[in-house]
Structures are given as structure tokens and as C-alpha cells.
Design brief:
The chain is an alpha+beta fold. It folds into three domains: 92 residues, Uridine Diphospho-n-acetylenolpyruvylglucosamine Reductase, domain 2, CATH 3.30.43.10; 113 residues, Uridine Diphospho-n-acetylenolpyruvylglucosamine Reductase, domain 3, CATH 3.30.465; 83 residues, Alpha-Beta Complex (Uridine Diphospho-n-acetylenolpyruvylglucosamine Reductase, domain 1), CATH 3.90.78.10. The chain is 30% helix and 25% strand. The chain contains eight helices and 19 strands. The strands form six sheets. The chain has a five-stranded antiparallel β-sheet with strand order 6-7-13-11-12, covered by helices on one side. Strand 6 and strand 7 form a beta hairpin. Helix 1 runs antiparallel to helix 2. The longest helix has 19 residues. The protein is globular, with a radius of gyration of 20 Å. The two termini are 34 Å apart.
């Protein structure tokens, strides 16, 4: 009983301190995370805070640090699997206010805040006749999440165009990190280790022909619609590409195309995608991914590493049915 009272007091303290700095519409309670992830699954977040500026973000981080409350930075949730149990901490939603895009036509640069969507940034480049971001036109993520994962498609990746990023450290300092210090690799960046929060990203593009740029973007999007199960909720490619192999090919060769656990299924269209057929829980998706990993390890001796981030506790989750 004493523990429960201490927990209640902690929650009240967090709530009061967040309410003191945020507008009422920017602080939500027990917000269902299924509404904020492309998988369309996930339980409630205890708090969801949408800072309007860097100072509010700095104070939110300070509150979480001082009260030892877990904190997670959310973009579009396009590479995220949230537990059915939800998240007993603060979700920081950067998508709501940190979404400005600035185009410098003279210097052929674009600076986009972390919450700006990659398709919107690509469209801004197209409008300015700048080439180099065509590959990102159909990636359903944000600028911050994209850099965090070094997003890429069709032979392009952010590593090729990014020059620097403004980031906030856990203690609230703002740094400008050059691309050479980001250790960008295949779905990798230094931010995964440092914990620095990406605020904005600067990219160097080149002058191009808007007609050709649009044709390229349309071609990529057409190929994406043709080959990927975009009609179902998913988080894109589920597994990282193992050295010397293609994850989707291994999964298909193992006879797992169409294999399902509860409402989660290996896409019949592209075996590299795990999809929510409509009734999946996070547990269904998690258990299906584990089964895929075990089968591929046993049959081919290849370790598949998940590309998707997981948030919350999955230990006690059970598949429905």
C-alpha cells in the first residue's frame, strides 16, 4: 500500500510539473499509442507531451531526469512497436510543433526540423527544383527518425545528403554535429549510443530538373505500391539486411510467406514485411518476429536482427486466441 501511495505521489508530481510548462492541448494522459504508430498497435502512454520549443523540451527532459521517469522521443512511429501494456513514462511528441522546413535556394540547402515528415521534405525539394531526396518521397517517417536510422531506399540514403544536425543532449545543451561524426551506416547512427535528441537536420542538395525529379519520385512510389503491402499497417521492412543475404528472401525460402500469429502476418506480397491484418496485438507481432528469427537461425544459420524499435515491456504479453 505504501508503494502504491508513493507511485501515486510521483505521478501527481510529474503531472503538475508538466502542466506548469505546457499548454493543456499539448499534454495528454493515458493516450493510446496505437494512434501514433504505423503498426496501429500499442497500449496507453502515461503522459504524452508536445513541446512547442527547445526550452520546453529542455524542461521536460529535466523533469524526467530528476524524477527518474522514463522518456521516449516520438516522431511518426513508423519504425516502432509499442507494448500492449503501454508505456509508463513520458512520450515526447516532436511531430506536432517541431515540423518546420526551410529551403535556401541560393545555397541549395534544406533545413528540416525533426518532426517534419520525409515525404514533405522531399516535396519541398521538388518545389525548389533540388535533387537528391527523391528516394525519401515515400518513406513514412520523420526527419529526426530518418536520420536516427539513416533511412534509405532505392539506392539512396540520408547519409548522402546530410551535412549536419542540431541536437540536444540529455542535460539540455544544444550541439551542432557534422555528418562525419554521426557514424551513419545501414540503419545505424551514433545517436543510438549517445542518446542525443535530433532537433533539425541540414541537407546539401544539387540543382535539378523538376520534371525529372517528379518522374523519379513517381517511379519510386509506383514501385513501392507494386511490391510492398501498403494497404496494411506495418513498420516497413521488419528486419535488417544480414550480410550476404536478403531478409525477405530468407523468410520466403523458409516457407513463411503468409505465416501468421494471431492478427500478425508475414506479408504474402513481400516476405520482408510483417503486417497487421486488422486485429493484431503488439504481442502477436512480437511473437511472430521471434518465430521468424528462430526459424531462419535453425534453417540457415543466419541471425536476423529486427530493424524495428520496441517500447515497453513484452515479457508478460500473450498472443490472443
Amino acid at each position: 500500500m505504501e508503494f502504491m501511495e508513493m507511485e501515486r505521489q510521483l505521478q501527481d508530481n510529474v503531472t503538475k510539473r508538466l502542466q506548469a510548462i505546457l499548454e493543456p492541448e499539448d499534454l495528454l494522459f493515458d493516450e493510446p499509442m496505437k494512434d501514433y504508430t504505423t503498426f496501429r498497435v500499442g497500449g496507453p502512454a502515461k503522459w504524452m507531451a508536445a513541446p512547442q520549443d527547445e526550452q520546453q523540451l529542455r524542461v521536460i527532459l529535466k523533469i524526467c531526469s530528476e524524477l527518474q521517469v522514463p522518456c521516449f522521443i516520438l516522431g511518426r512511429g513508423s519504425n516502432l512497436l509499442v507494448s500492449d501494456n503501454g508505456f509508463e513514462g513520458v512520450i515526447v511528441n516532436l511531430r506536432k510543433h517541431f515540423n518546420k522546413i526551410e529551403v535556401d535556394r541560393e545555397n541549395k540547402t534544406i533545413t528540416a526540423e525533426a518532426g517534419a515528415s520525409l515525404p514533405a521534405v522531399s516535396q519541398a525539394a521538388l518545389s525548389a527544383g533540388l535533387t537528391g531526396l527523391e528516394f525519401a518521397a515515400g518513406i513514412p517517417g520523420t526527419m529526426g527518425g530518418g536520420l536516427f536510422m539513416n533511412a534509405g531506399a532505392y539506392g539512396g540514403e540520408l547519409k548522402q545528403v546530410v551535412t549536419e544536425a542540431a541536437v540536444m543532449t540529455n542535460d539540455g545543451m544544444i550541439l551542432h554535429v557534422p555528418v562525419e561524426q554521426m557514424a551513419l551506416g545501414h540503419r545505424l547512427s551514433s545517436f543510438m549510443q549517445t542518446g542525443e535528441i535530433i532537433l533539425s537536420v541540414k541537407m546539401q542538395l544539387t540543382q535539378g530538373n523538376p520534371v525529372v525529379i517528379k518522374e523519379t519520385m513517381d517511379d519510386f512510389n509506383s514501385r513501392r505500391r507494386e511490391k510492398q503491402p501498403l494497404e496494411y499497417p506495418s513498420a516497413g521492412s521488419t528486419f535488417k539486411r544480414p550480410a550476404g543475404y536478403f531478409a525477405g528472401k530468407l523468410i520466403e525460402d523458409a516457407g513463411l510467406k503468409g505465416f501468421s500469429v494471431g492478427g500478425a502476418q508475414v506479408s504474402k506480397k513481400h516476405a520482408g514485411f510483417v503486417i497487421n491484418t486488422g486485429s493484431a496485438t503488439a504481442a502477436d507481432i512480437w511473437n511472430l518476429c521471434n518465430e521468424i528469427q528462430n526459424r531462419i537461425q535453425n534453417e540457415f544459420g543466419v541471425t536476423l536482427e529486427m530493424e524495428i524499435q520496441k517500447l515497453g515491456s513484452f515479457d508478460q504479453q500473450k498472443t490472443k486466441g
